[in-house]
Amino acid sequence: MAQVLSGTKASNDIKTQLKNEILELQEKYPDFKPGLAIVQVGDRDDSNVYIGQKLKSAAEVGVNAQHIKLPRSSTQQEVLSCVEKLNDDISVHGIIVQLPLESDNVIDAHLVTNAILQSKDVDGLHQDNAGRLARGDLDSCILPCTPRGCMELIKRTGVDVKGKNAVVVGRSKIVGAPMSDLLLWNHATVTICHSRTADLKAEVQRADILVVGIGQPELVKGDWIKPGAVVIDCGINSLPDATKPRGYRLVGDVDYESAKQVASWITPVPGGVGPMTVAMLLRNTVDQARKSYEKLATTTGWNIQYLPLALKDPVPSDIDIAKSQVPKDVSVLASEINLRHEEVDLYGKKKAKVSLKVLERLNKQKDGKYVVVAGITPTPLGEGKSTTTVGLAQALGAHLKKNVFACVRQPSQGPTFGIKGGAAGGGYSQVIPMEEFNLHLTGDLHAITAANNLLAAAIEARMFHEATQTDPALYKRLVPDNKGQRDFCPIQIRRLKKLGITKTDPKELTPEEIKRFVRLDIDKDTITWQRVMDTNDRFLRKITIGQGPQEKGHEREVQFDITVASEIMAVLALTTDLRDMRERLGRMVVASSKAGEPITADDLGVGGALAVLMKDTIRPNLMQTLEGTPVFVHAGPFANIAHGNSSILADKIALKLVGENGFVVTEAGFGADIGMEKFFNIKCRYSGLQPNAVVLVATVRALKMHGGGPTVVAGVPLPKEYREENLTLVEQGCSNLIKQIQNANKFGVPVVVAINGFATDTNAELELVQRISRENGAFDAVICYHWAKGGGGATDLATAVDQATRQPSNFKFLYDVKEQIETKIETIAKEIYGAAGIELELLAREQIERYKKQGFNDLPICMAKTHLSLSHKPELKGAPTGFILPIREARASIGAGFIYPLVGTMSTMPGLPTRPCFYDIDIDPDTEEILGLS
After folding, report:
1. H or E element: which one contains 545?
2. Would you say residue 71 has pLDDT above 70?
3. What's residue 811's pLDDT?
4. What distance lies between CA 374 and its chain's CA centroid?
5. Residue 247's pLDDT band (boundaries 50, 70, 90)?
6. Confidence of residue 250 (pLDDT cuts 50, 70, 90)
7. How far is CA 348 from CA 406, 422, 599, in A?
8. Does 681 or 669 have the greater pLDDT score?
9. How far apart are CA 231 and CA 157, in angstroms?
10. How far from the centroid of its chain's Cα atoms is residue 536's Cα?
11. Rounded Cα gap, residues 459 and 574, in angstroms
């Protein structure tokens, strides 16, 4: 007589285990909550019963199950859209589609089940899961619920599956076929039988383990069964039975009464396999939730495939090197660095945007090491700061096998087509594809241009309408009647609150309140907001607008800036989330009223619209280096007028993705006196992030220029001083390097000097720079050859940076933001530039006083001065001292969150040279290959 193998008891045991397991996981991950989504099309009674059982069992163990019920009228596309939405929902770890689909339309059930992400297919019906099971990849697949339940029941008998003869009757995709695979990979010898098997009884009689799921009631009789066999009956059929209250009884595919006389173990129907199917559905859901949390709530080593370099000597042009490397598809890269499918929006095959939801998912993850790359004061010879950023990332990743992200700014198309060319790095240390990096990328700069110019248009339109309409007429148009109802829109409520008006019914405002509400009364002479475009055009530096016949009498002199000089770009770089960006955009000050009150984008009613135009830009752009390590390219604020660093968000997401033992290498624009100082005092202040090390880039050639070397002219061969050993010039030029080392040390951050080596450098010159650096406060000084050798040429630098980041952190800001604006300016001038003091011109004094009255004193300072000298005079190289720094003007970027004093004349719209870079740029119409980009 067979022992009864109760699925009810086994499933209850499993559900108890799952409940305890969930509680244990919640101790480790407090927000752990397995999520199951059940999609049903139509309203079949039997489906409703099955779903009810699943929902009840899910609630018992602590699985958050949701029932999505779609109407019979649903189309295939609507069902697929529902599945895709659940695929993207990080709270859902398992998805099942209840079959059959009851729809008035034709729906391909196979297509729908395959639309479920393989990692969320807890029914195990996806073709990827089926394929992995067939290959025996049991660790990487999700087992179908019924076969997994059958195997669990077999294990509970104590019978060892290994070496046994197993017969599976039935070959369905849901039970028979996967059951045979599962038995096979558990080392049974398996025979699959079906309706067309010859002498089915003889085949069944050979079975030590018999699994039946053929859909024929009581087909298998007792005399078919080998004595002592384990019998698992997956069938459930109804037979008429007048003795039962419902008029029928449930039976399996095995004749239970005769079979139990022969078998050693047998499952009853009902109460056998059925309850186990539900239990295994929950088991699969909890397993996938656990894997998701273990893999994605924390970051460990990436499973990343690096790209080998085919180094050549001499080093080819940048674009030839970039084209010789085939980048990975960005979807592959995203998977390698543990980004989820729903967190990545592809822009073609080689670039993507990454969702800010990564920060929510990894909020418990410890940050990696934070390294900023700066440089000595730039010279026309170039120091290779971007190249070093990329080369260091390649060395840390491809060679030291660390998780590493490089974070760089998106280049402006002005310099790309003007005089500088692209900014993807150089030689064998580049971001690829460099054409896409240097051109439109994902359209962020175009969105900034559109938003900026919408605000400019709003200013002019508001002044025009205020000048041509009465208060009642303005009010009538600003708060229009809509079918007898007048309401303030949300952005108008903001303005009312700012004015101290608590009324929300437009009919209740007094004439005086209406006047205050509708009249911004902009003082034209105080307008600071300019139009922008991302092209160098010197003839837009001063223009006249309002020349049309309808705008007669409203002419005004204005100017265009380059897009990267827009305050909206600075806002993007400093924002911390979408809500913060919306608030920053709304509070951008564009002018003052005639009464001296600041006028903001929200006062103009355009703050929300700006945020809509900018909604996609807030997500960092994912690319890769030549060696296949990940790069975030995001934001590109001017390094003079703004703070010259890539975005806070890119750095924050990267720091979470690399994990506690990983590295984020981010670049600061221009010399350390500008980009690094602003990185510390502005970017770190708003981000709350603390850097672990500074990499200070220098070259022997540039140091010679700082030491008094002759002027370099583009297109003319380098003077011999730069081609031959000259230790005197090098030593004198190190005054600039020493000052920049001291500047970094003022913030309590260890400095590693990266000396980019050239063929013209001698060992004596390089060793001199190393010695002077170490003697003057550098943690280390390393010679690098990443331009010629890729990451392999920067492994010593990577090792030194790794060691530097292990030092205790003593990071501190240079000043307290609550100090007076003048005091903060003077602190930067004296401590960072080496000035003896500052001189505030009359206009600057007047502006500073206005900002104080308007409540803007407690903002950090973003100095706008030449990048070519520590002083305000570009011709003063080295480390000048004793000079007085003249402050000509002081402007405010309130939305971005800083005051920027202007030292001397700063151009915000570059001009094109006689022979711009665009002369060399073209496209091959046959291959679509871009030519001449550098």
Report:
1. strand 543-545
2. yes
3. 96
4. 24
5. confident
6. confident
7. 21, 21, 41
8. 681
9. 11
10. 30
11. 24
| 545, β-bridge pairs | 556
- Range with the poorest average pLDDT among 232-236, 652-656, 693-697: 232-236
- How many Å from the N-terminal Cα to the C-terminal Cα in the chain? 84
SS3 assignment, position 693: strand
**Whole-angstrom Cα distance, residue 445 to residue 461?**
24
Structure tokens at 153: 């029941």
Residues assigned a catalytic role = 54
* Length, in residues, of the chain: 934
- The token pair at 74 is 């649903």
**Which amino acid is it at 754?**
A
Return the number of other C-beta atoms located less than 10 Å from residue 710's C-beta: 13
pLDDT band per the 50, 70, 90 thresholds, residue 421:
low
- Smallest Cα–Cα separation from 83: which of 52, 46, 41? 41
Q: What is the CA radius of gyration of the chain?
A: 35
Under 8 Å between Cβ of 186 and 152: no
Q: Alpha helices, DSSP H only, in 116-267?
A: 127-135, 145-156, 176-185, 200-204, 256-259
Under 8 Å between Cβ of 394 and 629 = yes
- Beta bridge partners, 623, equal 631
pLDDT digits (tens, 9 = 90+) for 893-931: 999 999 999 997 777 777 777 666 666 667 778 777 777
Measured distance CA(347)–CA(330) in Å, rounded: 9
The pLDDT value recorded for residue 437 is 86
Residue 32 · residue 298 · CB < 8 Å: no
Name residue, tokens 């100095």: 863
Establish how many alpha carbons lie within 13 A of residue 137's alpha carbon, considering only the half-sphere containing its beta carbon: 9
Question: How many Å apart are CA 656 and CA 664, to the nearest integer?
Answer: 10
Report DSSP state, residue 241.
-
Q: Give the pLDDT confidence of 73-115 residue by residue, as tens digits.
A: 999 999 999 999 999 888 999 999 999 999 999 999 999 999 9
Which residue is listed with tokens 């529902």? 82
The answer to whether residues 649 and 614 touch, using CB atoms and an 8 Å cutoff, is no
Report the pLDDT averaged over residues 496-503: 94
Sign of the alpha-carbon torsion through 285, 286, 289, 291: negative
